[in-house]
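pasting for the record
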Amino acid sequence: QVQLVESGGGLVQAGGSLRLSCAASGRTFSAYAMGWFRQAPGKEREFVAAINWSGGSTYYADSVKGRFTASRDNAKNTVYLQMNSLKLEDTALYYCAAVQGAGPRSSYYDYDYWGQGTQVTVSS
């Protein structure tokens, strides 16, 4: 089992920045690829970013490419999502997820463990 706890969400003006964190406990964190997803009210959960076990490979949704950066610190069992140039449409509940294995994944169905989410609200 892997337990995931997100933090760092909040209210920010458009154009601003936030950094989300996801702390993992349980089994060996470095054995897991990690992903970030988000879900806005009335919409399906969508892929945002993913990072492989070492942090050397990342993958982003087109909507956030160039603005968001995923990283991880395996010594701290934590994965991060740096979000810059935030837009109104980035408003959502953000989740981190874990899947055992090396490569970053973009499919919701690939992930085995999920956090409870942290709310990000971007205002005009």
